[in-house]
Amino acid sequence: MKESFHQRHLLIALVYFCVAAGLGLLLRSFPIFSFDFNFKYVVHSHSHIALLGWVYVALTTLLHYCFMENTSNHTYIRIFWGTQGTLVGMLFTFPFQGYALFSIIFSTLFLIMSYAYTHYFWKNIDPKYKKSNGLTCVKAALIYMVVSSLGPWALGAVMSTLGAQSIWYRLSIYFYLHFQYNGWMLLALLGLFLFVQEQRGHNIPQRSFVRFFTAINLGIVLTFFLSTLWTEPSPWLYVLGGVGAIIQIGALLVFWTLAKNGIGNLSPSNLQNQLLRTVVVLVSVKVGLQLLTSIPYFARMATKYLDFTVGYLHLTFLGVVSFGLFFFLDYFGLLRLSRTVYQLYFVGFLLTETLIFLKGFAFWSKWEIFEGYAATLALCSSIIVLSLVLMVLQNRTAS
Questions:
Q1: What integer is the mean pLDDT of 300-319?
Q2: Which residue spans adopt a coiled-coil conformation according to this UniProt entry (predicted)?
Q3: Is 385 helix (H, G, I), strand (E, B) or coil?
Q4: Contacts by residues 30-33 (CB-CB < 8 Å, ≥ 24 positions apart)
Q5: For labelling alongside 225, which of 33, 35, 172, 281 has CA 20 to 30 A away?
Protein backbone atom coordinates (compact mmCIF):
# COMPACT_ATOMS: atom_id res chain seq x y z
CA MET A 1 0.00 0.00 0.00
CA LYS A 2 2.74 2.43 1.00
CA GLU A 3 4.77 1.59 -2.10
CA SER A 4 1.73 1.91 -4.39
CA PHE A 5 0.98 5.36 -2.94
CA HIS A 6 4.47 6.62 -3.76
CA GLN A 7 4.68 4.75 -7.07
CA ARG A 8 1.76 6.76 -8.44
CA HIS A 9 3.41 10.03 -7.47
CA LEU A 10 6.75 9.00 -8.95
CA LEU A 11 5.03 7.95 -12.16
CA ILE A 12 3.62 11.48 -12.36
CA ALA A 13 7.17 12.83 -11.96
CA LEU A 14 8.31 10.58 -14.79
CA VAL A 15 5.49 11.85 -17.01
CA TYR A 16 6.76 15.39 -16.38
CA PHE A 17 10.20 14.21 -17.48
CA CYS A 18 8.65 12.90 -20.72
CA VAL A 19 6.91 16.24 -21.29
CA ALA A 20 10.13 18.19 -20.60
CA ALA A 21 12.08 15.92 -22.96
CA GLY A 22 9.36 16.33 -25.60
CA LEU A 23 9.62 20.10 -25.30
CA GLY A 24 13.41 19.79 -25.60
CA LEU A 25 12.97 17.76 -28.80
CA LEU A 26 10.61 20.44 -30.12
CA LEU A 27 13.25 23.10 -29.44
CA ARG A 28 15.92 21.08 -31.24
CA SER A 29 13.60 20.53 -34.19
CA PHE A 30 12.97 24.28 -34.55
CA PRO A 31 15.89 24.91 -36.99
CA ILE A 32 14.69 22.05 -39.18
CA PHE A 33 10.95 22.68 -39.43
CA SER A 34 10.68 26.36 -38.37
CA PHE A 35 7.67 25.80 -36.15
CA ASP A 36 5.43 28.77 -35.46
CA PHE A 37 6.07 29.20 -31.73
CA ASN A 38 8.05 31.52 -29.50
CA PHE A 39 11.34 29.71 -28.93
CA LYS A 40 12.15 31.53 -25.68
CA TYR A 41 8.74 30.78 -24.18
CA VAL A 42 9.16 27.05 -24.82
CA VAL A 43 12.64 27.17 -23.28
CA HIS A 44 11.04 28.52 -20.09
CA SER A 45 8.46 25.70 -20.15
CA HIS A 46 11.12 23.05 -20.78
CA SER A 47 13.37 24.17 -17.92
CA HIS A 48 10.56 24.65 -15.38
CA ILE A 49 8.94 21.28 -16.02
CA ALA A 50 12.30 19.48 -15.99
CA LEU A 51 13.50 21.00 -12.71
CA LEU A 52 10.21 21.37 -10.86
CA GLY A 53 8.12 18.63 -12.41
CA TRP A 54 10.60 15.77 -12.75
CA VAL A 55 13.37 16.45 -10.22
CA TYR A 56 11.44 18.24 -7.46
CA VAL A 57 8.45 15.87 -7.48
CA ALA A 58 10.68 12.78 -7.61
CA LEU A 59 12.99 13.96 -4.84
CA THR A 60 10.26 15.13 -2.46
CA THR A 61 8.35 11.88 -2.99
CA LEU A 62 11.48 9.84 -2.21
CA LEU A 63 12.12 11.90 0.93
CA HIS A 64 8.56 11.31 2.08
CA TYR A 65 8.91 7.59 1.35
CA CYS A 66 12.17 7.26 3.30
CA PHE A 67 11.71 9.50 6.33
CA MET A 68 7.97 9.62 7.07
CA GLU A 69 6.83 6.04 7.30
CA ASN A 70 4.59 6.46 10.35
CA THR A 71 2.85 9.78 9.67
CA SER A 72 -0.56 10.52 8.20
CA ASN A 73 -0.50 11.23 4.48
CA HIS A 74 -3.45 13.63 4.38
CA THR A 75 -1.44 16.85 4.65
CA TYR A 76 1.17 15.54 2.23
CA ILE A 77 -1.53 14.66 -0.31
CA ARG A 78 -2.95 18.20 -0.16
CA ILE A 79 0.54 19.66 -0.62
CA PHE A 80 1.29 17.21 -3.43
CA TRP A 81 -1.84 17.97 -5.45
CA GLY A 82 -1.54 21.68 -4.77
CA THR A 83 1.96 21.47 -6.23
CA GLN A 84 0.64 19.61 -9.30
CA GLY A 85 -1.86 22.41 -9.85
CA THR A 86 0.96 24.96 -10.00
CA LEU A 87 3.02 22.77 -12.36
CA VAL A 88 0.13 22.21 -14.76
CA GLY A 89 -0.54 25.94 -14.61
CA MET A 90 3.06 26.67 -15.60
CA LEU A 91 2.89 24.08 -18.38
CA PHE A 92 -0.14 25.80 -19.92
CA THR A 93 1.03 29.40 -19.50
CA PHE A 94 4.78 29.55 -20.13
CA PRO A 95 4.61 28.27 -23.75
CA PHE A 96 2.12 30.98 -24.69
CA GLN A 97 3.21 34.03 -22.72
CA GLY A 98 6.65 33.43 -21.22
CA TYR A 99 7.19 35.35 -18.00
CA ALA A 100 3.87 37.18 -17.69
CA LEU A 101 1.03 37.56 -15.21
CA PHE A 102 -0.38 34.01 -15.07
CA SER A 103 2.92 32.13 -15.40
CA ILE A 104 4.39 34.30 -12.63
CA ILE A 105 1.33 33.60 -10.44
CA PHE A 106 1.75 29.83 -10.87
CA SER A 107 5.53 30.06 -10.32
CA THR A 108 4.95 32.02 -7.12
CA LEU A 109 2.35 29.53 -5.90
CA PHE A 110 4.85 26.72 -6.57
CA LEU A 111 7.41 28.42 -4.31
CA ILE A 112 4.78 28.72 -1.58
CA MET A 113 3.93 25.02 -1.93
CA SER A 114 7.63 24.11 -1.69
CA TYR A 115 7.83 26.06 1.58
CA ALA A 116 4.76 24.18 2.82
CA TYR A 117 6.41 20.87 1.95
CA THR A 118 9.64 21.86 3.74
CA HIS A 119 7.72 22.83 6.89
CA TYR A 120 5.66 19.63 6.73
CA PHE A 121 8.77 17.48 6.27
CA TRP A 122 10.63 19.15 9.13
CA LYS A 123 7.73 18.67 11.54
CA ASN A 124 6.89 15.07 10.65
CA ILE A 125 10.19 13.21 10.46
CA ASP A 126 9.97 9.72 11.92
CA PRO A 127 11.74 9.98 15.34
CA LYS A 128 13.83 6.87 14.67
CA TYR A 129 15.75 8.80 11.98
CA LYS A 130 16.56 11.85 14.11
CA LYS A 131 20.26 10.90 14.39
CA SER A 132 20.64 9.83 10.78
CA ASN A 133 23.55 11.42 8.90
CA GLY A 134 21.49 11.01 5.75
CA LEU A 135 18.74 13.09 7.32
CA THR A 136 21.29 15.80 8.22
CA CYS A 137 22.20 16.08 4.54
CA VAL A 138 18.55 16.11 3.49
CA LYS A 139 17.72 18.91 5.94
CA ALA A 140 20.60 20.97 4.56
CA ALA A 141 19.37 20.22 1.03
CA LEU A 142 15.92 21.58 1.87
CA ILE A 143 17.49 24.72 3.33
CA TYR A 144 19.36 25.25 0.06
CA MET A 145 16.12 24.74 -1.84
CA VAL A 146 14.50 27.53 0.17
CA VAL A 147 17.59 29.74 -0.16
CA SER A 148 17.64 29.21 -3.94
CA SER A 149 14.13 30.67 -4.15
CA LEU A 150 15.57 34.09 -3.27
CA GLY A 151 16.66 34.22 -6.91
CA PRO A 152 13.13 34.11 -8.39
CA TRP A 153 11.86 36.53 -5.74
CA ALA A 154 14.65 38.96 -6.70
CA LEU A 155 13.78 38.73 -10.41
CA GLY A 156 10.56 40.72 -9.98
CA ALA A 157 12.34 43.55 -8.19
CA VAL A 158 15.19 43.56 -10.71
CA MET A 159 12.86 43.64 -13.73
CA SER A 160 10.76 46.46 -12.31
CA THR A 161 13.75 48.62 -11.35
CA LEU A 162 16.83 47.72 -13.41
CA GLY A 163 15.32 45.76 -16.30
CA ALA A 164 16.02 42.35 -17.84
CA GLN A 165 19.28 43.62 -19.39
CA SER A 166 20.84 44.24 -15.96
CA ILE A 167 23.58 41.86 -14.80
CA TRP A 168 21.50 41.37 -11.64
CA TYR A 169 18.82 39.68 -13.75
CA ARG A 170 21.20 36.93 -14.86
CA LEU A 171 22.83 36.75 -11.44
CA SER A 172 19.42 36.09 -9.87
CA ILE A 173 18.85 33.20 -12.29
CA TYR A 174 22.34 31.78 -11.71
CA PHE A 175 21.89 32.09 -7.94
CA TYR A 176 18.73 30.02 -8.22
CA LEU A 177 20.27 27.39 -10.49
CA HIS A 178 23.47 27.05 -8.45
CA PHE A 179 21.77 26.41 -5.12
CA GLN A 180 19.28 24.11 -6.84
CA TYR A 181 21.75 21.69 -8.42
CA ASN A 182 24.81 22.13 -6.19
CA GLY A 183 22.82 22.47 -2.97
CA TRP A 184 19.30 21.06 -2.98
CA MET A 185 19.64 18.26 -5.55
CA LEU A 186 23.21 17.10 -4.89
CA LEU A 187 22.88 17.03 -1.10
CA ALA A 188 19.47 15.35 -1.24
CA LEU A 189 20.91 12.55 -3.40
CA LEU A 190 23.93 12.17 -1.10
CA GLY A 191 21.59 12.12 1.90
CA LEU A 192 19.45 9.39 0.34
CA PHE A 193 22.57 7.33 -0.39
CA LEU A 194 23.74 7.64 3.22
CA PHE A 195 20.22 6.71 4.35
CA VAL A 196 20.12 3.45 2.38
CA GLN A 197 23.57 2.55 3.70
CA GLU A 198 22.47 3.25 7.27
CA GLN A 199 19.45 1.00 6.77
CA ARG A 200 21.85 -1.77 5.75
CA GLY A 201 24.04 -1.31 8.81
CA HIS A 202 26.87 0.78 7.34
CA ASN A 203 27.32 3.89 9.50
CA ILE A 204 30.02 6.47 8.82
CA PRO A 205 31.98 7.55 11.94
CA GLN A 206 30.51 10.80 13.23
CA ARG A 207 33.80 12.72 13.22
CA SER A 208 34.43 11.77 9.60
CA PHE A 209 30.88 12.73 8.64
CA VAL A 210 31.24 16.15 10.29
CA ARG A 211 34.41 16.80 8.26
CA PHE A 212 32.66 15.83 5.05
CA PHE A 213 29.50 17.80 5.87
CA THR A 214 31.45 20.96 6.74
CA ALA A 215 33.54 20.72 3.58
CA ILE A 216 30.66 20.02 1.21
CA ASN A 217 28.67 22.99 2.52
CA LEU A 218 31.67 25.31 2.32
CA GLY A 219 32.23 24.12 -1.24
CA ILE A 220 28.58 24.71 -2.17
CA VAL A 221 28.66 28.29 -0.90
CA LEU A 222 32.02 29.25 -2.40
CA THR A 223 31.39 27.71 -5.82
CA PHE A 224 28.53 30.16 -6.30
CA PHE A 225 31.22 32.69 -7.18
CA LEU A 226 31.95 30.62 -10.30
CA SER A 227 28.48 31.65 -11.50
CA THR A 228 29.51 35.32 -11.28
CA LEU A 229 32.72 35.12 -13.31
CA TRP A 230 30.99 36.08 -16.57
CA THR A 231 30.84 39.64 -15.13
CA GLU A 232 34.69 39.67 -15.06
CA PRO A 233 34.79 40.64 -11.38
CA SER A 234 37.67 41.10 -8.94
CA PRO A 235 40.38 38.39 -9.14
CA TRP A 236 39.46 37.46 -5.57
CA LEU A 237 36.17 35.98 -6.79
CA TYR A 238 38.09 33.71 -9.16
CA VAL A 239 40.17 32.60 -6.19
CA LEU A 240 37.15 32.02 -3.96
CA GLY A 241 35.34 30.09 -6.70
CA GLY A 242 38.43 27.97 -7.38
CA VAL A 243 38.96 27.26 -3.68
CA GLY A 244 35.29 26.27 -3.40
CA ALA A 245 35.63 23.89 -6.36
CA ILE A 246 38.72 22.26 -4.82
CA ILE A 247 36.99 21.93 -1.43
CA GLN A 248 33.94 20.37 -3.09
CA ILE A 249 36.10 17.85 -4.95
CA GLY A 250 37.86 17.02 -1.68
CA ALA A 251 34.54 16.60 0.13
CA LEU A 252 33.20 14.25 -2.54
CA LEU A 253 36.40 12.20 -2.45
CA VAL A 254 36.02 11.89 1.33
CA PHE A 255 32.38 10.89 0.86
CA TRP A 256 33.29 8.20 -1.66
CA THR A 257 36.07 6.88 0.58
CA LEU A 258 33.67 6.62 3.51
CA ALA A 259 30.71 5.25 1.60
CA LYS A 260 32.22 2.84 -0.95
CA ASN A 261 32.83 0.10 1.64
CA GLY A 262 29.11 0.03 2.39
CA ILE A 263 28.01 -0.54 -1.22
CA GLY A 264 28.34 -4.29 -0.81
CA ASN A 265 25.83 -4.17 2.05
CA LEU A 266 23.23 -2.77 -0.37
CA SER A 267 23.38 -5.91 -2.54
CA PRO A 268 22.77 -3.83 -5.68
CA SER A 269 21.71 -5.53 -8.90
CA ASN A 270 23.94 -5.34 -11.97
CA LEU A 271 21.81 -2.50 -13.34
CA GLN A 272 22.00 -0.58 -10.06
CA ASN A 273 25.78 -1.04 -10.05
CA GLN A 274 25.89 0.41 -13.55
CA LEU A 275 23.81 3.37 -12.47
CA LEU A 276 26.10 4.04 -9.51
CA ARG A 277 29.21 3.87 -11.69
CA THR A 278 27.59 6.19 -14.21
CA VAL A 279 26.80 8.74 -11.50
CA VAL A 280 30.34 8.58 -10.08
CA VAL A 281 31.86 9.19 -13.53
CA LEU A 282 29.48 12.05 -14.35
CA VAL A 283 30.01 13.73 -10.97
CA SER A 284 33.76 13.55 -11.59
CA VAL A 285 33.34 15.22 -15.00
CA LYS A 286 31.01 17.84 -13.54
CA VAL A 287 33.32 18.92 -10.71
CA GLY A 288 36.30 18.84 -13.07
CA LEU A 289 34.57 21.25 -15.48
CA GLN A 290 33.53 23.37 -12.53
CA LEU A 291 37.14 23.69 -11.37
CA LEU A 292 38.26 24.50 -14.91
CA THR A 293 35.95 27.54 -15.07
CA SER A 294 37.78 29.12 -12.11
CA ILE A 295 40.56 29.88 -14.62
CA PRO A 296 39.75 33.21 -16.32
CA TYR A 297 40.35 31.93 -19.86
CA PHE A 298 37.90 29.05 -19.48
CA ALA A 299 35.40 31.25 -17.60
CA ARG A 300 35.33 33.63 -20.60
CA MET A 301 35.13 30.66 -22.96
CA ALA A 302 32.07 29.23 -21.17
CA THR A 303 30.43 32.67 -21.23
CA LYS A 304 31.13 33.38 -24.90
CA TYR A 305 30.09 29.99 -26.26
CA LEU A 306 26.67 29.19 -24.84
CA ASP A 307 26.79 25.55 -25.91
CA PHE A 308 29.36 24.84 -23.19
CA THR A 309 26.97 26.18 -20.55
CA VAL A 310 24.02 24.26 -22.00
CA GLY A 311 26.12 21.08 -22.13
CA TYR A 312 27.19 21.52 -18.52
CA LEU A 313 23.62 22.07 -17.31
CA HIS A 314 22.38 19.01 -19.21
CA LEU A 315 25.31 17.00 -17.86
CA THR A 316 24.14 17.94 -14.37
CA PHE A 317 20.36 17.55 -14.73
CA LEU A 318 20.01 14.82 -17.38
CA GLY A 319 23.16 13.10 -16.16
CA VAL A 320 24.11 13.33 -12.49
CA VAL A 321 20.67 14.08 -11.05
CA SER A 322 18.54 11.89 -13.34
CA PHE A 323 20.79 8.82 -13.19
CA GLY A 324 20.93 9.28 -9.41
CA LEU A 325 17.14 9.35 -9.25
CA PHE A 326 16.89 6.30 -11.52
CA PHE A 327 19.12 4.41 -9.08
CA PHE A 328 16.88 5.15 -6.09
CA LEU A 329 13.64 4.48 -7.98
CA ASP A 330 14.95 1.07 -9.03
CA TYR A 331 16.66 0.30 -5.72
CA PHE A 332 13.53 0.95 -3.65
CA GLY A 333 11.45 -0.98 -6.19
CA LEU A 334 9.16 1.99 -6.70
CA LEU A 335 9.56 2.17 -10.48
CA ARG A 336 11.05 -0.40 -12.81
CA LEU A 337 14.04 0.46 -14.99
CA SER A 338 14.90 -2.23 -17.54
CA ARG A 339 18.39 -2.63 -18.94
CA THR A 340 17.08 -1.79 -22.44
CA VAL A 341 15.55 1.49 -21.28
CA TYR A 342 18.70 2.40 -19.34
CA GLN A 343 20.89 1.73 -22.37
CA LEU A 344 18.59 3.75 -24.65
CA TYR A 345 18.59 6.70 -22.27
CA PHE A 346 22.35 6.47 -21.76
CA VAL A 347 23.05 6.37 -25.51
CA GLY A 348 20.73 9.34 -26.14
CA PHE A 349 22.31 11.30 -23.29
CA LEU A 350 25.87 10.52 -24.39
CA LEU A 351 25.23 11.40 -28.04
CA THR A 352 23.44 14.67 -27.30
CA GLU A 353 26.13 15.76 -24.83
CA THR A 354 28.84 14.97 -27.38
CA LEU A 355 27.05 16.96 -30.07
CA ILE A 356 26.40 19.96 -27.81
CA PHE A 357 30.02 20.20 -26.67
CA LEU A 358 31.20 19.54 -30.25
CA LYS A 359 29.30 22.60 -31.45
CA GLY A 360 30.86 24.69 -28.69
CA PHE A 361 34.35 23.51 -29.65
CA ALA A 362 33.58 24.15 -33.34
CA PHE A 363 32.66 27.78 -32.62
CA TRP A 364 35.68 28.18 -30.34
CA SER A 365 38.10 26.83 -32.94
CA LYS A 366 36.23 28.53 -35.82
CA TRP A 367 35.47 25.24 -37.56
CA GLU A 368 32.39 24.72 -39.64
CA ILE A 369 29.90 22.45 -37.90
CA PHE A 370 28.99 19.51 -40.12
CA GLU A 371 25.97 19.67 -42.39
CA GLY A 372 22.90 18.09 -40.85
CA TYR A 373 24.00 18.88 -37.29
CA ALA A 374 20.53 20.10 -36.22
CA ALA A 375 18.80 17.01 -37.61
CA THR A 376 21.35 14.70 -35.97
CA LEU A 377 20.92 16.43 -32.59
CA ALA A 378 17.13 16.19 -32.87
CA LEU A 379 17.37 12.50 -33.80
CA CYS A 380 19.61 11.78 -30.80
CA SER A 381 17.25 13.74 -28.54
CA SER A 382 14.38 11.55 -29.76
CA ILE A 383 16.22 8.54 -28.31
CA ILE A 384 15.92 10.12 -24.84
CA VAL A 385 12.23 10.78 -25.41
CA LEU A 386 11.70 7.20 -26.58
CA SER A 387 13.47 5.75 -23.53
CA LEU A 388 11.34 7.82 -21.14
CA VAL A 389 8.10 6.95 -22.92
CA LEU A 390 9.02 3.26 -22.68
CA MET A 391 9.78 3.70 -18.97
CA VAL A 392 6.37 5.28 -18.38
CA LEU A 393 4.61 2.54 -20.34
CA GLN A 394 6.47 -0.22 -18.49
CA ASN A 395 5.54 1.20 -15.12
CA ARG A 396 2.03 2.11 -16.15
CA THR A 397 1.49 -1.51 -17.17
CA ALA A 398 3.08 -2.74 -13.93
CA SER A 399 0.84 -0.56 -11.76
A1: 92
A2: none
A3: helix
A4: 31/374, 32/374, 32/375, 32/378
A5: 281
